[in-house]
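Q: Entry one of two.
A:
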Amino acid sequence: MQTAVFIGADPKVAEIVRLGICLRWPKVIPMVAVTGTSGLEMIKDESPDLVILRPDFPDKSLTEIIRELREFSDVRLVVVNHQSNELESVTALEAGADQYIQLPCELSEFTFKVWSLVRRTEGRDAGEDEEPLIGGDLKVDPSTHEVFIGNRDLSLTPAEFQLTHLLVKNNGSVVSRSQIEKELAKAGLGGVGSVKQHIMRLRRKFEDDAKHPKWFVNVPGVGYRFIGGSKSGVRKAA
């Protein structure tokens, strides 16, 4: 890891983040932004390897900044906060965060959790050299983690992209729930919601009807199958 960004207004939390990062990566000094807007601009300019977010800034809500970030970046994202309600961590993860760390926590615990996320997701960029998959109007691009139907960008979360890529790559074949869970865990995304929840959100974004599916079919007791390719199936882009 070479660069990190902390977004948050509390200097005490910023210092904890700095110490935690420097303990594991001594050459990395996190850049700091005190508002959501300036933080998003910093991420666009610097393309960091890690973003740590404390949602105590006045200009954006937690879900708002995560969703805006995920519109242009798949960077590792950790949310740290004194949990205001039991749903906050779930909301953050569903919006696109990779991990939620509840404050207060020991510095060693914070450092270990961040290190674990980085270690687990080191293979996330392995798809950069893969060619896009094309199926009818659908295009799945591993190099940019973008999914398009025609000209419409679906703006998927990291877990939703991994699931879409897995199902499209296995076009027409059933992928079991256990295999999906295994692949999400390998990408460091095993704790961000159930397979059923991911499929439900994908169907909303794909505008797919579960009763009359055009994209994703549930195979009861087994898993899911992608059926949205053209008659000639999914192919790699030329």
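Q: Entry two of two.
A:
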Amino acid sequence: MAFQKQIESFKEWCRITMRKMTIWSEDGKVEIAVLERNFPEEGGTWSGDWVASTVSVDIPGYKANFEADLRTGEFASFLKELEAMNSELKGTAAFEPLEKIVEITGEMNSLGGIVWEIETSYPSGGDTVLQFTLGADQSYLPALIQELKELLEEFPVLEKSEKETGLLRNMFWNMRQ
């Protein structure tokens, strides 16, 4: 009984301290939680923005949890696109990590509905791929935007400048294509 209480206490601590973003739908959800920086000693460099994360998918007939290495700049770009979508009540927002372990694209229609197209691939670049769609309305956007702001407050983008890091990033992008 005491051990179960410790487990519940730990789960609550994780819920409070973990930074995450959640794509919600009445039919399921995708949650990406950031655990820690992969290279905390590399602050201010391209390497310093890699974060260890977990991806959780919960849709009818399918549940999965796996690890992912993502970049804080990818979350920041997604946040910017979501904020534009929320203020204009139209448009598209995409979360497209360098490592194609999870990709999310949301498009808002004229009625305020959002169609989220999601693809997961585990391991990254592997043969196990799941593509699915979730539908939601714009009322979910403020919570998602707030989650991303809190995530980026805890794990801000550290990269110094495009000039200093652009060559390496472009090389990595070209390898991905």
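A: Comment on entry two: The first strand starts at residue 19 and ends at 25. DSSP finds four helices and eight strands in the chain.
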